[in-house]
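Task 17 of the worksheet. Students: predict the tertiary structure of the chain below and write it out as structure tokens. Keep your answer in the requested format; marks are given for formatting as well as content.
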Amino acid sequence: MTITATPRLAPMFRLQFEPAQDAWVLLYPEGMVKLNGPASEILKRCDGKTSVAEITADLERAFSTNGLQGDVEDFLRHADEQHWIA
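Model answer:
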């Protein structure tokens, strides 16, 4: 996943907050993946228009921190391997 890539959720997946789980989840026809906080924050920003660099910058602003590029790229690589994003 390059910093200029503009990831989006794959068509068969839907991101939503699930009150029963008290967490964000990724829904798909065969089931559900309960996401931790960082994963949900990254996936919420995967709209197919925002680059990985912009997602990282937005997260760093939102959480008043620096140095998230590697973590964001690692998670997006994992999400891509799981076919959660396109």
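Marker's comment: The chain has a mean pLDDT of 97. Helices lie at 37-44, 52-62, 69-81.
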